[in-house]
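Need a sequence for this fold. Nothing fancy.
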């Protein structure tokens, strides 16, 4: 005989209906598909658009702050930069202040590609916000930021 505990199906339904992680993942995937489709004619994905936008700063950032902003580990960010670098949209150069570090910047071609894609993002983003009926966009953003930046607990 098995001693395996049985989880009632009602618990499965409860988790399906209430799990914040599941709902956030489903929403993120649905949004990513919409933005990927809209940005495809510009030769980029939503992730690439976000990454390139994260590089649009007065001074070229290092990998750490960009990885933190995008909630990526450094290895994943480095891999995501490779196709953009191959396309000539992003430049990865040694940090003049710390030779172990790298500075990331948009090239002129990258800025042109990002500039061409931005109106598509603006239009679709407005459509998504306008379609929200259960919550206003600012409240949703505040809640998502709160979840992604929990207060520090511990020593």
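Here you go.
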């Amino acid at each position: 005989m098995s001693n395996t505990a049985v989880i009632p199906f009602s618990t499965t339904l409860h988790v399906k209906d209430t799990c914040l992680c599941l709902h956030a993942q489903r929403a993120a995937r649905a949004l990513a598909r919409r933005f990927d489709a809209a940005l495809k004619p510009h030769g980029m994905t939503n992730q690439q658009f976000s990454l390139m936008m994260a590089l649009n700063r007065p001074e070229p950032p290092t990998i750490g702050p960009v990885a933190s902003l995008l909630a990526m580990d450094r290895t994943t960010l480095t891999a995501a930069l490779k196709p953009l670098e191959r396309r000539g949209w992003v430049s990865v150069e040694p940090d003049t202040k710390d030779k172990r570090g790298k500075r990331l910047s948009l090239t002129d071609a990258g800025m042109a590609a990002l500039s061409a894609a931005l109106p598509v993002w603006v239009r679709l983003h407005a459509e998504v916000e306008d379609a929200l009926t259960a919550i206003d966009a600012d409240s949703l953003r505040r809640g998502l930021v709160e979840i992604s930046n929990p207060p520090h607990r511990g020593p």
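For context: Residues 20-135 form a domain with the Arc Repressor Mutant, subunit A fold (CATH 1.10.10.10).
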